[in-house]
Amino acid sequence: MMKLARTITLRSAILLVVSGIVGSGAFKKVAPMAAELGSPLLVLGCWVGAGIISLAGALSNAEMAGMFPESGGEYVYYQKVYGRFFAFLYGWGSFAVMKTATIAALAYVFGQSLVPVMGLSDESAGWAIKAIASGLILGLSWINYRGVSFAEGLSRTLTYLMFGAVAVILLIGFRAQTGDVAHLIQPGHLTSSNPDLLNAITLAMLGAFWGYEGWNYIGFIGEEVKNPQRTIPLALGIGTGIVMGIYLLLNTIYLYVLPIDRLAQLAQLPNKIAAVEVVRQAGGWVGAAFISCLILVTTFNSTNASILMSARIFYAMARDGVFFRSAARIHDQYQTPSVAIFLQGIWSVALVWSGTFDQLTDMLIFASFLFYGSTALGVLILRRKHPELPRPYRVVGYPVVPALFALFCAGLVSLTLINQPREALTGLALMATGVPFYWFWRQRT
Predict the structure, then answer these.
(1) Which UniProt keywords apply (predicted)?
(2) Taking burial as the number of CB atoms within 10 A of a residue's CB, which of 152, 218, 224, 310 is the most buried?
(3) CB atoms within 10 A of CB 342
(4) Domain 10-444, CATH class in plain words
(5) What are the backbone dihedrals phi and psi of residue 276, each rounded to the nearest 5 degrees, phi first?
(6) What SS3 state is found at 353?
(7) Three-state DSSP class for 23?
(8) What 3-state class would DSSP assign to 59?
(9) What are phi and psi of 221, to 5 degrees?
(10) Cα–Cα separations (whole angstroms), residue 164 to 235, 275, 290, 301
(11) What whole-number distance in Å separates Cα of residue 218 and Cα of residue 226?
């Protein structure tokens, strides 16, 4: 049986972690978070808290990734811990909503950033955004079909470009005439859109977690990483830490330049991106054009990384006989899971046309945390049941780190079911649609 070639080094893996995470959340989510909380310190606290929790999840995930460095990431881990059916539910959920909706949402923000320069009416802009997003997904799917080395090299180049652009944005922001340290401390005068503080923090954290979505992607390409037992854990920890620093600096700039009330008002303008308005205030039209280009680069890059890594889940499922058989095909010339890439792309385009950006992201964050908690719990289960298994990397702070992360995931899932039942139940329903397929495919194997 053909296998995927190992070509990804440690540096490339770290950059893929960064590129898989940094997409649209850091530029767009500060506005709805400001509207929910009405406090700059709470907004920054949510970004820090979400980063620490995501890092705990990444470190827990790293132990599993070191033990089972195969294509498919959590799909493979869940087979070892919970059995084939639970692993299938994760894989189908990834196809139905979690990974494909991530791709759709990132591509959608790419379209949002590009359309304003086209001078279209509001009605035409909505269609244009979706058309551009669809074209981006299909174009990047073709690039990834052509080979992992080229797609990874593109991602690496764009990530370096993003680092430089972020540094310029920080310089523009700190030199802004409207900047004031008091903006970082003083609560807003407008009433928070959510009078229940716990509920407000929960909803704001969902926005922040969307910004960190993607930290686990590197595990999906474990079969293509050199020395994966060492490389994947290091890439997860270092890459997530780098993103935490970038996000905290960017959100500090937003809150330094504009008071919390102005940011909250932007949440009522769905076609406005908060970061663009902040830098427009700080650096005029040149600054706005520059950050729009930065958002284009990051969303393009993150969409590319998501397409590259997520398709390996569906390839692994097909290889096990619980997905469309053709998705297990490896292209003879390009050595890529070519059919899996295009199946993923077609469904992602369908999701682009199905709903709004925030509905997509809230739906996928809920579904994702169902399984993130299961990974951390799996670390605890395997330590108890199979202490003899080799563990090239052991999670720091065991058992506290994976246990607290699993408990947090359970709490977040419960609160989302209560506060956003439509998005939560839609995500569950999409995952449940896979059950008939599972029994059909199992009978054929």
Answers:
(1) Membrane, Transmembrane, Transmembrane helix
(2) 218
(3) 18
(4) mainly alpha
(5) -65, -45
(6) coil
(7) coil
(8) helix
(9) -110, 30
(10) 21, 17, 12, 14
(11) 12
